[in-house]
Write a structure and sequence with these properties.
Layout lengths: L1 H18 L18 E4 L2 E3 L8 E5 L2 E5 L7 H10 L7 E5 L5 H4 L2 H8 L2 E5 L3 H5 L22 E3 L4 E4 L2 E7 L8 E8 L4 E7 L19 H13 L5 E4 L7 H4 L14 H18 L4
Parallel strand pairs: 4-5, 5-6, 6-7, 11-12
Antiparallel strand pairs: 1-2, 2-3, 3-4, 8-9, 9-10, 10-11
Helix pairs in contact: 6-8
């Protein structure tokens, strides 16, 4: 009886947090609008909503899911995975590009449904465990998504291996303390491809960087991330939001398999240049 009581006390804080999730309701309709899943390239598939990008990476030993969108998206992602002909419960590893509610909203539910292992950049582990409550910009003391306990903490350059697929994580902080990007190699019947899933460093706070004591390294981190992203080489780039990499200009529902549509170094450089200007303006650089 005593052991059972202690166990209940251990679970109680997580239960309370889960019961008090306050996901923002003023979200763009594109974040929850459905979108037909499709094969992007090789073993990389799009299973997200109209704008919140979620990726399924299939392997010989099970599958990997990157991002989940809002809390209401769990069933939609499950449906998308099944429509592609894959078993939802074959998801073995869960990843995220950033610990915000629009990318982790359904993660706790999907972890529960699949039993998959959650891996996260170590700098986002704390905020993920409190459901976004301690996030320097969006937290405000409120739990915005169900808390998730990570199974593995990742550092810059760490590799995630499953079956015949190896993914490298790049620590790209600023947007969150543990924002990150992923790089992997894939292939189809014609050739091999290097794929970057980039976490583009948009600025999420209206405060001056010097007015954020909870994140004293923020300016340094943004500068580092912009510089790092500019140096990366790839064949195809994707991102956390469909709108960031022009998904809807490159692919229409029903289009045939066409990886070449996502060859877009020019668009990538343009997006980074725009973010650089945003950063320079923020720090008062002319």
């Amino acid at each position: 009886m005593k052991i059972k009581f202690i166990f209940c006390l251990f679970l109680f804080p997580l239960f309370v947090l889960a019961q008090n999730v306050q996901e923002p309701t003023d979200t763009p309709k594109e974040w929850s609008a459905p979108y037909a899943p499709f094969r992007i390239v090789g073993n990389v598939y799009y299973v997200g909503t109209y704008d919140l990008a979620c990726y399924l990476i299939t392997t010989s030993k099970g599958n990997i899911l990157i991002n989940t969108g809002l809390s209401s998206s769990a069933e939609q992602i499950k449906k998308n995975v099944n429509l592609l002909g894959f078993n939802f419960k074959d998801i073995k590893i869960l990843l995220t590009t950033q610990a915000h509610y629009d990318h982790l909203g359904a993660m706790a539910e999907i972890k529960k449904l699949t039993g998959a292992k959650m891996m996260v950049d170590e700098k986002d582990a704390t905020v993920m465990k409190d459901g976004g409550k301690s996030d320097y910009a969006l937290g405000n003391g409120k739990t915005t998504y169900a808390p998730i306990i990570p199974d593995r903490l990742l550092k810059d350059g760490d590799q995630i291996q499953l079956g015949n697929t190896n993914i490298v994580m790049f620590h790209h902080p600023g947007h969150t303390k543990g924002s990150c990007s992923f790089m992997l190699k894939t292939k189809d019947e014609k050739r091999s491809y290097s794929v970057l899933i980039a976490n583009m460093p948009s600025i999420v706070t209206e405060k001056k960087f010097s007015e954020i004591p909870a994140y004293p390294e923020i300016e340094k981190d943004y500068a580092y991330t912009l510089n790092s992203l500019k140096k990366l080489s790839f064949d195809i780039w994707l991102s956390s939001h469909a709108s960031q990499f022009g998904l809807h200009e490159k692919h229409k529902p029903g289009d045939k398999y066409n990886p070449a549509a996502f060859f877009d170094r020019k668009g990538y450089d343009k997006a980074l240049n725009s973010l650089q200007l945003e950063f320079d303006k923020k720090i008062g650089k002319k």
